[in-house]
Amino acid sequence: MSPDGIVESVSTGRTPIIRFDHASFGFPGLIALKDISLSIYDGEFVGVIGPNGSGKTTLCRAVLGLLPPVEGHLHIFDCACNELRCHHRAQIGYLPQKGVVDRNFPVTVLETVMMGRYGALGLLKRPGKKDRQIAMEALAQVSMESHKDTALGHLSGGQQQRVFIARALAQQPKVLILDEPTTGLDITMQHNVIELVQHLHDELKLTVLLITHDINMIRSRVDRLVLLKTRLYAAGPPAEVLKPEILHQVYGKELVITEKDLVIVEDYHHHH
Amino acid sequence: MLDFLAYDFMQRSLLAAAMVGGLCSVIGVFVVLRGLAFVGAGTSHAAFAGVALGYLMGWPPLLLAILFGLATVWITGWVEERGRMKLDVSIGILYTTTMALGILFIGLMKTYNAEVYGYLFGSVLSVTPEELRIIGALSVLVLSLLLLFAKELYFIAFDQEMAEASGVPARQMFFLLLTLVALTVVVSLKTVGAILVFAMILIPASTAYQLTHSLSTLTLYSAFIGITTSVLGVLISAIWDIPSGPAIVLLATALFFTAILFSPKRVRRTGVVHSH
């Protein structure tokens, strides 16, 4: 299945819930991801790494069914991605990259989390006691229940991130996708958020797809790392993926490896 | 002094103003939050072109206004979705083109038609019982649809992609919102006029936005401000014999600036700047 030179070790005996089969994404002439073959299994904690513009966010949008492949196939829950229905999407919790959401939007914490229920509820149905309870449980999972009536805009960046994670949890998802959840947070908060994600994975048996540029933060926590740069360079346990010869191919000069074998990626934060 | 309240026409116009004020201010909440302010402006001019064509050809003006309005919002929505052109550019072009059409249609009329100008500047005091019924029916329709799909519309206003990602039919809801904006504009043409309807959609919601952090409170405040300023505006216009459209809009504007002065958000925003 895998093209030559690609490390892909997969655990057998489990069901893949997301399956890319030679799938390419983007627009004709501007391919963001090319010829991806990858299976993600139920209950896995997968870290997605790669330089800026390597197609990490495109991978997220693809799994959410927002972007059908231009070539190849993508199956989610055994359902072709372009046939993905609303109720399938509701099973995928998503934390978009920061800055996508208007922070001054007049909305309280609980109202934000309740939005996570809307997809599963369907049209014309009002959220009831049970939905409120699910939303409160999700807030408790991220330790934000005491802020339920606070305006979202009044919270710190890290707290807002927790609320958005709670909204994803309120969907009672099978899969949780987080796109750079630590961007713009201070170091303590970054660790808090990653620890929370790990806790949710362990506790709720969630399949987690965590996109990040901070390899050190996640290398000891994830089951597998997926290394992208338009193509899939490697997918496997961190020890197999984080090898100098593989990393140099992808990061080139941006990569510095210290004596303690710590991988530091000089990702210059190309903010636009 | 308030003897005029006994007149039928006065009661009709107060009722029309209250309905239009309430309707515009409620849909205005979604328009402001979703960032569609200029869509309202573009649509009102397109709807006016429809009215002018109706009078020119002897076809029902409100029907054509609806057709023109819907065509404009759907083209706008389609262009935004495609991301091919900046929204302000596409609306700017549609806005001026439809206005040019409106002026052309008026120019082609052989005689001066005062009624057409009524749609441009608003003439709430001349609302007929039939028009009142149309306004009522369309208001009920738009408000019921808003109520039925409120949770989805709030969600797409908050973050459309997020809404779509979490299983809400976001694209359909976006086009529903655009359609409701077009209908609201048409309903309001007669009372506040094509030029000022935009203000009635924008100002009450923006005023309420200054005052609260909760979605439901925002909607309630906005509706209250919209209805109150519309009714007061009509009363003022009757008492002092000034045009009703400007009276309503200027009253709402005065309230808007008052709200900005006393806004709890404004105080907070200054605080944030200092903390950085």
Number of discrete helical segments of chain B: 11
Mean pLDDT of chain B: 88
| Content-based structural category of chain B | mainly alpha
Number of strands of chain A: 13
Runs of chain A in which pLDDT lies below 50 for 5 or more consecutive residues are 1-5
From the coordinates shown, what is the CATH architecture of chain B? Answer: Orthogonal Bundle
Shape of chain A: globular
Query: Main β-sheet of chain A, in a few words?
Result: 7 strands, mixed
- End-to-end Cα distance of chain B, whole Å, is 56 Å
Q: Which two protein chains have the largest interface (Cβ within 8 Å of the partner's Cβ), and how many residues from each?
A: A-B, 39 and 27 residues
Mean pLDDT across the residues of chain A is 86
| Largest sheet report of chain B | none
Shape of chain B: globular
Give the tags.
heterodimer; A: 272 residues; alpha/beta; Rossmann fold; 2 domains; seven-stranded mixed sheet; four-stranded antiparallel sheet; 9 helices; 32% helix; disordered N terminus; B: 276 residues; mainly alpha; ABC transporter involved in vitamin B12 uptake, BtuC; 11 helices; 84% helix; 0% strand; disordered C terminus
What does this structure look like?
- Helix content of chain A is 32%, strand content 26%.
- Chain A is an alpha/beta fold and 272 residues long.
- In chain A, the strands form 3 sheets. In chain A, strands 1-11-10-4-9-8-7 form a 7-stranded mixed sheet, with helices on both faces. A 4-stranded antiparallel sheet of chain A has the order 3-2-5-6, covered by helices on one side.
- In chain A, helix 3 crosses helix 4 (129-141), helix 3 (109-121) runs parallel beside helix 5 (157-170) and helix 4 (129-141) crosses helix 5 (157-170).
- Chain A is globular.
- Chain B has 276 residues and is mainly alpha-helical.
- Chain B has a single domain (3-267), classed as ABC transporter involved in vitamin B12 uptake, BtuC.
- Helix content of chain B is 84%, strand content 0%.
- Chain B has 11 helices and no strands.
- In chain B, helix 1 (8-34) crosses helix 8 (170-209) and helix 7 (150-165) packs across helix 8.
- Chain B is globular and about 55 Å long.
- The termini of chain B are far apart.
- Mean pLDDT of chain B is 88; it is low at 267-276.
- Chain A binds chain B through residues 64, 66, 86-94, 96, 100-102, 104-108, 111-112, 115-116, 118-121, 123-124, 126-127, 151-154, 167-168, 171, and chain B through 33, 148-149, 151-152, 154-155, 157-159, 161-169, 209, 212-215, 218, 265, 268.
